[in-house]
């Protein structure tokens, strides 16, 4: 598990003409992305030694030593940046990395299987679980709050949900 990669950010494109990049950080403390270097691409084939230059709206301006032109920076647009799990801080019992939630079974409070977690999103107002319904292409969005998701058991691979009226 120590070699498992966690997505901590993404390259949003070039910033200026000297090879600087726009970086979006997915870290709880956004600036921490720099401390997890070297970051890798998803396939692990490329390493990135990231140095933050300054904050901008929605992220940071950063430099990567190997990138010196706007064209090289543009070519990296959309690349997700990964750190090894053992580089990241341990979390309290009631906090989770998104990657740990994806694929977990979701059961209602009566034990009926509702589906499995397809994605986790945060659109600013709080985390949302997208649950893929059993035997269907339908998905349901559930707020990731204590009232709706009272139990997350990573070891058992399941989440207990108490969906709001009409959610299903």
Features:
single chain; 168 residues; mainly beta; Elongation Factor Tu (Ef-tu), domain 3; SH3 type barrels; 2 domains; six-stranded mixed β-sheet; five-stranded antiparallel β-sheet; 2 helices; 43% strand; elongated
Please count the beta strands (DSSP E, at least 2 residues each).
Answer: 13
Q: What's the CATH architecture name of the largest domain?
A: Beta Barrel
Numbering strands along the chain, what is their spatial order in the largest sheet?
11-10-9-8-13-12
Q: How large a portion of the residues is in β-strands, by DSSP E?
A: 35-45%
**Helix share, percent:** under 10%
Task: Enumerate how many helices there are, as a single number.
Answer: 2
The end-to-end distance, rounded to whole angstroms, is: 34 Å
Spatial extent as radius of gyration: 19 Å
**What is the average of the pLDDT values?**
89
Low-pLDDT residue spans:
none
Describe this protein's structure.
- This protein has 168 residues and is mainly beta.
- It folds into two domains: 5-87, RimM (Elongation Factor Tu (Ef-tu), domain 3, Beta Barrel), CATH 2.40.30; 98-161, SH3 type barrels (Roll), CATH 2.30.30.
- It contains two helices and 13 strands.
- The protein has helices at residues 70-75, 98-101, and strands at 5-15, 20-25, 39-40, 47-48, 50-56, 59-64, 80-84, 105-108, 113-122, 127-133, 139-143, 151-153, 158-161.
- The protein has a six-stranded mixed beta sheet with strand order 11-10-9-8-13-12. Strands 5-6-2-1-7 form a five-stranded antiparallel beta sheet.
- A hairpin with a 4-residue loop joins strand 8 and strand 9.
- It is elongated and about 60 Å long.
- The model has no long low-confidence stretch (mean pLDDT 89).
């Amino acid at each position: 598990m120590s070699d498992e990669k966690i997505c901590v950010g993404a390259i949003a494109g070039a910033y200026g003409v000297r090879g600087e990049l726009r970086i979006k950080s997915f870290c709880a403390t956004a600036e921490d992305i720099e401390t997890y270097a070297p970051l890798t691409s998803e396939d692990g084939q490329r390493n990135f030694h990231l140095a933050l230059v300054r904050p901008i709206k929605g992220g940071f301006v950063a430099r990567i030593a190997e990138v010196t032109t706007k064209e090289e920076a543009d070519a990296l647009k959309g690349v997700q940046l990964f750190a090894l799990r053992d580089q990241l801080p341990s979390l309290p019992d009631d906090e989770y990395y998104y990657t740990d939630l994806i694929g977990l079974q979701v059961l209602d409070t009566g034990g009926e299987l509702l589906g499995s977690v397809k994605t986790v999103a945060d659109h600013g107002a709080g985390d949302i679980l997208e649950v893929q319904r059993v035997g269907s292409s339908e998905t349901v969005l559930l707020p990731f709050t204590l009232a709706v998701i009272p139990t997350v058991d990573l070891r058992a691979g399941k989440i207990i949900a108490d969906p709001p009226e009409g959610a299903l």
